[in-house]
Amino acid sequence: MSDKVKEVKDVAEVSEKAMKKQKGGFQLGTVLALVLMCVILSVLNHNFYNVTNIMSVFKQTAFNAFLATGMLLCLITAGIDLSVGANAVFCACIMGAMKQAGMSSGILMILVAILLGTAVGMTNGLLLTKLHLPHPFVSTLGMKNVLWGLALVVTNSQMVSGFPESVQWLGKKTIVAGFPVSFLVIIALYVVMHIFLSRTALGRSIYCLGGNKEATRLSGINTDRVLLFCYSVSGLMASLAGILSVGRSGICNGANATQPYDTDAIAACIIGGASFMGGKGTMIGTMLGCLIIAVLRNGFTLLSVDSAVQNVVLGLVIILSVFMDVVREEREVKRRRLASAKK
Amino acid sequence: MSENIIELRNVTKRFPGVVALSNMQLTIKPGEIHGLIGENGAGKSTLIKVLTGVHQPDEGQIIVEGQECKFKDPNESKAKGIACVYQELNIEKLLSVTDNVFINNWTKKGFLLDYNSMHKKASEIMTSLGQDVDVHKAAGTYGMGIQQMIEIAKAVLLDAKVIIMDEPTSSLGEKEVAQLMKTCRDLKARGIGILFVSHKLEELFELCDRVTVMRDGEFIATKDISEWDNDSLIAAMVGRTLDNQFPKEFGKKGECFLKVKDLTIGGVLDHVSFEAYGGQILGLAGLVGAGRTETVRAVFGADPIDGGTIEVKGKEVKIKSPEHAIEAGIALLTEDRKGQGLVLAQPIRTNLILSSLKEHSSGVLLDEKKIEENGQRNMSDLRIKAPSLDEITGQLSGGNQQKVVIGKWVNADADIYIFDEPTRGIDVGAKVEVYNVMNRLVKAGKCVIMVSSEMPEVLGMSDRVVVMRGGKVMAEIDRDSKHFNQEDIMKAAWGGSLDE
Q1: Can you list the residues of chain A whose pLDDT is less than 50?
Q2: Nearest to A170, CA basis, from A67, A72, A242, A278
Q3: Model pLDDT for residues B74-130, shown as the tens digit of each residue
Q4: Which residues contact B213 (CB under 8 A, 6 or more apart)?
Q5: CB A292 within 8 A of CB A30
Q6: What span, in angstroms and rounded, lies between the C-alpha atoms of A187 and A192?
Q7: Nearest residue to B221 via CA among B42, B354, B357, B416
């Protein structure tokens, strides 16, 4: 064997080892980043590390964690859903409109919100699979604007308050030590979704579709149905987030549809290891991403950082996370190249 | 000054593992239309790429007008007056005809583009090529014939001495072909040499002055067109002997598993009918573009059809998607392994169960134990060489990747296995293993359909051969028929008729 070949081989072996470390270490790195942030914040502000504040971080996490769940499914299929934030606000406003119309049944409101939110997601899926619109980026961006407008139309651009208790339960109720029900629901949801993604046929199909849609279709998997499922789940999650927001704030406000909810959800997924190229991402990583974002926002508020500066930093975090995604992809390609050179 | 514009002397080009061109000879004279012909994989594309500077020859000389040239890149070849109109046109459809003609070769007035003179010149050239077009319009508004003329206009603008045309008629209609031939003769009259690469014998006879035949990367012969005829051209192209790389074993012919009747896709397939039997390998032979891949994709429900029926074991089935096909017991190993066969980023484990997720589930969850067991069995049965089932599929060699795809279909437990170019791009050892899988399938009474562009493979492995051309079935030949030989199959593939 010539020296050159041997050299390549060594490099490949070293890089493979490094990559394995990196792969296992990546989630670890995210955990460390989260812990480090918490430690720094505890030192800088003694209000951070107390039960009430931690519980409020959990409360803040829950909203984004719902949206990120749907977003993750779409990202794994190499798609995206930019309408989740507006969909959540729209669902809240639908309930507001029902309240304005004098209805008092909380259960009915919740049912209608869930139904409509899921229908919106399903529409996104149909636009993608039946009309063959080029990339969900454009169609869901359009949907976001439609929902923003509709949220204002149905409530006459007014804030609505005074929702029945049953509607507010999810966002407001706490159990022992002020632990929010919403976060409990999130934990259950993430466990179920984790099992779904990693251990069911449909879950596996979602990853394969994101890795190579045509190969997946030609393996006999109905890729259109899988996509429709993912976007419908995204809509369902958005409606739950909408219900939660009503309980947390006690109001609904159509103007909130322009808040950067979508980008927070995307950032959580990407920080957690998902990729815009599709085929990747986990529930555990996404949970870590949601916590990091919530801690950041919470910490800034505690340190009374100007909200404008908050936006700047969060924007940079999002760019950084996308950059990490690119770096990760490049490393992966290089590792594969070296590994194949070894053979 | 030499009498040849271009002369290739003993040009050899090697790629890892293959000699793509070996001692190639070629001369092109001014004002000559020189035909180049050879089977798929004979090395025509490599030859073109050497001439255009895309590849650099390992040995031999390229002599342009008496001067030896070493092209480092396509620009250097272009500067010497060699232009090429590729089969896939390089037209920017949204830009105007003028923009396309002058692309990268702009006429400027100071800092700005001089559109007045460019439009005028483009219009002149297009008219000289017999095309009366509005050069201001977007190139995409015109058909393939005119888009090709724009490519030729680029060459004329550069004062090309030689124009290489790679399968120029493959995407043209009859009228457009006639116009192209007229243009070729005009260019010839201007003293331009043309290298006309074609699969169609009749075009060569109509147009060319001399024809060169290639086979397996080697030069076979160059003769005046009057010295060639149909049979001698085909014999020169295929004239190789079969060696024993094909461990053919025979199964027992069973019932008719697949009956395709009048399968039609507008402009692609024209009433394709054939039958395939259990315990047999049916070879689908033909040239690239004959409609074989389209046929099997249509049978598999990968593409929508316009008409025709498919019967599986005597029962008509409606196949609208691959899902239906698999339910009906049909499996398709696609020609494009990486693009359509595998999810490269996923481990072997996942790719192996992609077509049989249901069978690998118990209740709602995947049955990891069964996946592991079946996976290990696939690995040893198919001799997939990989450290473990968790190896990322993209990291395997071509042969091992192909075995993973085969494993995926074996796990789907089909009755009819369609293999589209199953041994393309894999090494000889892996090829034999693929043939052995086919042998095992037919011995187990399954039906195998093999699409192959390699004639020795078709002859070596098939029990029956269906020959296609231009989306039609040209001939059906049994292994014990007197027509079961290279010459006759090629003859049918080139559009000739076989006597009874």
Answers
A1: 1-25, 343
A2: A242
A3: 889 999 999 999 888 888 889 999 999 998 888 888 889 999 999 999 999 999 888
A4: B37, B38, B220, B221, B222, B233, B236, B237
A5: yes
A6: 9
A7: B42
B346 touches chain A (CB under 8 A): yes
Please indicate if any CB of chain B lies within 8 Å of the CB of A204.
Answer: yes
Pick from A13, A218, A222, A331 the residue to mutate for testing the B interface (most B CBs within 10 Å).
A218
Q: Is the pLDDT of residue B197 over 60?
A: yes
User: Hey, how many other C-beta atoms are within 10 angstroms of the C-beta on B465?
Assistant: 27
pLDDT bucket at B232, cuts 50 / 70 / 90: confident
Q: Is residue A133 part of a domain?
A: yes
Write the pLDDT tens digit of every residue in A177-222: 889 999 999 999 999 999 999 999 999 999 999 999 999 999 999 9
Whether the CB-CB separation of B26 and B82 falls below 8 Å is answered with no
Mean pLDDT rounded to a whole number for chain A: 87
Complex ipTM value: 0.81
**Rounded Cα–Cα distance for residues B258 and B447 (Å):** 8
3-state secondary structure of B261: strand
Query: Which of A192, A194, A219, A338 to mutate to probe the B interface, most B CBs <10 Å?
Result: A219
Alpha-carbon dihedral angle through residues B283, B289, B295, B298, given to the nearest 10 degrees? 150
Angle at A131 between CA A128 and CA A137, to 5 degrees: 35
Residue A98 lies in a domain: yes
Asked if the C-beta of B319 comes within 8 angstroms of chain A's C-beta atoms, the answer is: no
Number of domains present in the structure of chain A:
1
For residue A237, the enclosing domain spans 62-259
Q: Strands B281-285, B464-469: parallel, antiparallel or unpaired by DSSP? A: parallel
Cα separation, B449 vs B417, whole angstroms: 6
> What pLDDT is stored for residue A14 in this prediction?
41
Distances (CA, A) of B247 to A265, B279, B440: 57, 16, 11
Contact: B342, A212; criterion CB under 8 Å: yes
- Domains with residue ranges and CATH for chain B: 6-238 (3.40.50.300), 256-493 (3.40.50.300)
User: In chain A, which residues have their Cβ closer than 8 Å to the Cβ of B322?
Assistant: 217-220
Say yes or no for a CB contact (<8 Å) between B341 and A215: yes
* Dist. CA B232–CA A255, nearest whole Å: 80
277-316 of A, contacting B, C-beta below 8 A: 279-280
Using a CB-CB cut-off of 8 Å, the residues of chain A touching B408 are: 219
Distance of alpha carbon B156 from alpha carbon B164, whole angstroms: 12
CA angle at A317 for the pair A20 and A276, rounded to the nearest 5°: 60
* Secondary structure E strands in A223-278: 251-252
| Nearest residue of chain A to residue B327 (CA atoms) | A220
Neighbour-count burial of A31, counting CB atoms closer than 10 A to its CB (0-12 exposed, 13-18 middle, 19+ buried)? middle
Phi, psi of A203 (to 5 degrees): -60, -45
Using an 8 Å CB-CB cutoff, list chain A residues near B339.
212, 214-215
Return the number of other C-beta atoms located less than 10 Å from residue A115's C-beta.
Answer: 15
User: From the CA of A5, how many Å to the nearest CA of chain B?
Assistant: 15
Is the pLDDT score of B168 beyond 50? yes
